[in-house]
Design brief:
Number of strands: 0
Number of helices: 14
Mean pLDDT: 86
Oligomer: single chain
Structural class: mainly alpha
Strand content: under 5%
């Protein structure tokens, strides 16, 4: 599988060289496929201190949160964007720590991935969960929820079957009851959001032809590709074939011990490019290489 994936990457790269800007190609190739170097590195036998790193972060993340909300301005921190990116700063309220990922969503999601790779005592486990809340990131909380769900798959499977059956039987009554409260979140608002997001996605692919859908178009992301909708930007840049090859390649390396962290990694990347940021590339490479190693 390794040889096939590498051959595919070489082929895509050579095709893109002929039709794309070389600087943008090299930059995005490193961003989206740089994890392969860490995979090969860890596959060679290099270990990774997951538990020690997680314990260190349990100490450092709350420390950063305290400092940037008291004595130190987040504008002076090297892991924060420039002050011009005002949406990243909460001047009159709680400032989220950005930590090792330079982004609260990325850092919190990777933290949960690390947490899913080890088993802690109750005190350490609750301390780690507390750190996820300190990040104050929806992505981190969703990743934590997914971790809980996957570790109790049978219980949650029964629960969701019951919930879906209940909703299916009383669909109209439930919607009418919720709408009667006059809340912002109602059926009309949800329909609006779904339609709006679908329209946003459709606009991203304006002008695409069949070849663009298959192998992507780097011109479509020349104005940026590191924000929301990470998988969408990947699809725009490298197409459906690359997306399928990448996901199949990643999941082909899953074991009983790594399937949960790998699923969380893939899921969390729907929002920010968690597995494409450098810390995410390192963790992804290690998780995939775990297939060939005995220890965790």
């Amino acid at each position: 599988m390794d040889s096939l994936f590498l051959l595919f990457l070489i082929t895509i790269f050579l095709i893109k060289v002929l039709i794309s800007d070389i600087v943008l190609l090299v930059t995005t190739f490193r961003f989206y496929f740089g994890f392969i170097f860490f995979y090969l590195y860890f596959k060679s036998g290099v270990s990774f201190p997951v538990k020690k790193l997680l314990l260190l972060l349990i100490f450092l993340v709350p420390l950063e949160a305290v400092l940037i909300n008291t004595f130190i301005s987040p504008h002076s921190m090297p892991n924060f964007p420039s002050p011009e990116a005002y949406s990243h700063f909460n001047v009159n309220g709680y400032q989220r720590p950005y930590s090792f990922g330079g982004n609260a969503s990325v850092s919190s999601s990777i933290f949960v991935i690390l947490l899913s790779m080890v088993y802690f005592s109750s005190i350490r486990k609750y301390a780690a969960i507390g750190v996820v809340f300190i990040f104050s990131s929806g992505s981190g909380l969703m990743s934590l929820f997914l971790l809980t769900l996957l570790r109790r798959a049978k219980l949650f499977a029964i629960f969701f079957v019951f919930i879906f059956a209940f909703i299916g039987l009383f669909h109209s009554e439930i919607i009418n009851t919720i709408d009667s409260f006059g809340l912002k979140v109602n059926s009309q608002y949800i329909h609006f959001l779904v339609d709006y997001k679908l329209e946003q996605i459709n606009r991203h692919f304006d002008g695409f032809n069949t070849l663009d859908y298959l192998i992507g178009s780097l011109d479509s992301i020349k104005n940026g590709y590191g924000g929301d909708f990470a998988w969408l930007y990947f699809l725009k840049a490298y197409g459906l074939l690359s997306l399928l090859f990448l996901i199949v390649f990643i999941l082909s390396k899953a074991t009983k011990e790594t399937i949960i962290p790998l699923l969380i990694a893939l899921f969390s990347t729907f929002h920010y490019p968690v597995i494409f940021f450098l810390p995410g590339q390192i963790i992804l490479g290690y998780l995939m290489a775990r297939r060939y190693r005995a220890e965790l």
